[in-house]
Specification:
Rossmann fold; 5-stranded parallel sheet; 8 helices; binds adenosine monophosphate
Length: 183
């Protein structure tokens, strides 16, 4: 099964993505995680990615598409995957022809996401208030059109993310027609 997870930072999508990957026995791939790893490298590319991320902007589509298609061409992704954080722009969605089965949008209000992130202890540089504001703006500007794109294709499922981890997981499993954990 090929699943795309979409949600603002703080929506809990990585928690849900990992639970689902375990359930479906497919790999979980987060573009945010990939970019954070590249940003640690002391190379021109590492510094470039770090600067963009810390300012709260998106990595250019061309670079993102190149990295994602490189990962997804590997053997372990052939049976399926959970993709977190991609596609994030309409250009990425239109260029990505990989036969996605479902797009899950975990919806939380901006204020709730900000509240959750302010409670996190591992303060990340890209979660500083100004970068966070920019990221939320980027989400509305670039990612809402991605939701519309998949809605037109009949693949979009909207999930209320302001509930417990278990409730959300159960809801997602119901949508995908698989038994949820612990049942
Ligand atoms: P995330 O952890 O998914 O919130 O991603 C962290 C950061 O990585 C984002 O703020 C972007 O700078 C970058 N990023 C992640 N995924 C993408 C993407 N699909 N397109 C462009 N930039 C991305």
């Amino acid at each position: 099964m090929k699943i795309v997870l979409i949600g603002i930072q703080g929506s809990g999508k990585s928690t849900q993505g990992n639970l689902l990957a375990e359930k479906l026995k497919v790999p979980y791939l987060s573009t945010g995680h990939i970019f954070r790893e590249i940003a640690k490298e002391h190379t021109p590319m590492g510094r470039y990615i770090k600067e963009i991320m810390n300012s709260g902007y998106l990595i250019p589509d061309e670079k993102t598409l190149e990295i994602v298609s490189d990962y997804l061409s590997r053997p372990e992704y052939q049976k399926g995957y959970i993709l977190d954080g991609f596609p994030r722009t309409k250009v990425q969605a239109e260029s990505f022809k990989n036969g996605i089965d479902a797009v899950l949008y975990i919806k939380v209000l901006d204020e709730e996401a900000i509240r959750r992130l302010s409670l996190r202890r591992d303060n990340r540089e890209d979660e500083a208030p100004r970068a966070l504001k920019k990221r939320i703006e980027s989400f509305h500007k670039f990612t809402i059109p991605v939701l519309e794109y998949y809605k037109e294709k009949g693949k979009l499922h909207e999930i209320n993310g302001e509930r417990t981890i278990e409730e959300i997981h159960r809801d997602i499993c119901g949508i995908l027609g698989v038994a949820s954990n612990g049942q």
